[in-house]
């Protein structure tokens, strides 16, 4: 089997890091945690679970994961967040493809736990994420938020689910997305995009129709409805914050 490095970025993830690391044990001899200054027991728990820990001040989501990839000991890398873990089926699928990789990177379905329910439709599933890659052919883009791996070669698809529990409460979930929309707006503004009333008004509705009706999000009940509505709110918030940045810039120049 091709040797594999697992990289995980952390900041105060003491409640989740052990589950994440234990899910990859037996799959890799190089489990790397890149911590950006945890004040809880994240580092101690990671080391106790068998990971090596490197400190790196926060660079942004994409840049932090790119740094973690550069610190891995092997060319094949599996990148996880601390609030994710491998299902048994996905772990076996990774082991199988690494026997003789036919692609340069692999994406996997991610199953999201939201309001106590594993989502099966809409935005919550399959939510394909490219996380297993040969770093000679693929690496992270340095986006501030909603970072992704860019692969210059062939991309395959794995069986089994990447399990994801992003927040324990709805308050935590919305707080996280409030922070993300600020980062998204800043990135859009830095890239030269400007406010569009059309996008503010219609993009959330297009998103709702797509995920709630076309992708059957209504089958996930109330949890599915709230999950998709929150996603629509993030679109509205992102464009609203872009307008605010634009107005501030205009006032500063005036």
- Kindly name the structural category: alpha/beta
How much helix, percentage-wise, in residues? 40-55%
What sort of overall outline do the alpha carbons produce when their principal axes are compared? globular
As residue ranges, the low-confidence spans are none
Q: Averaged pLDDT, please?
A: 96
Gyration radius, in Å: 19 Å
Distance between the termini: 62 Å
Major pleated sheet? 7 strands, mixed
User: Strands of the biggest beta sheet: in what spatial order?
Assistant: 3-2-1-4-9-6-12
Beta-strand percentage range: 15-25%
DSSP summary, beta strand count: 13
N-to-C SSE string, H for helix and E for strand: EHEHEHEEHEEEEEEEEHHH
- How many H/I helical runs? 7
Please give a structural write-up.
The protein is an alpha/beta fold. It is built from 7 helices and 13 strands. The protein has helices at about 15-20, 40-50, 60-70, 90-95, 170-190, 195-215, 220-254; strands spanning about 5-10, 30-35, 50-55, 75-80, 85, 105-110, 110-115, 115-120, 130-135, 140, 150, 155, 160-165. The strands form 3 sheets. Strands 3-2-1-4-9-6-12 form a 7-stranded mixed sheet, with helices on both faces. Helix 5 (about 170-190) packs parallel to helix 7 and helix 6 (about 195-215) packs antiparallel against helix 7 (about 220-254). The longest helix is centred in the C-terminal third of the chain and has 33 residues, at about 220-254. The model has no long low-confidence stretch (mean pLDDT about 95).
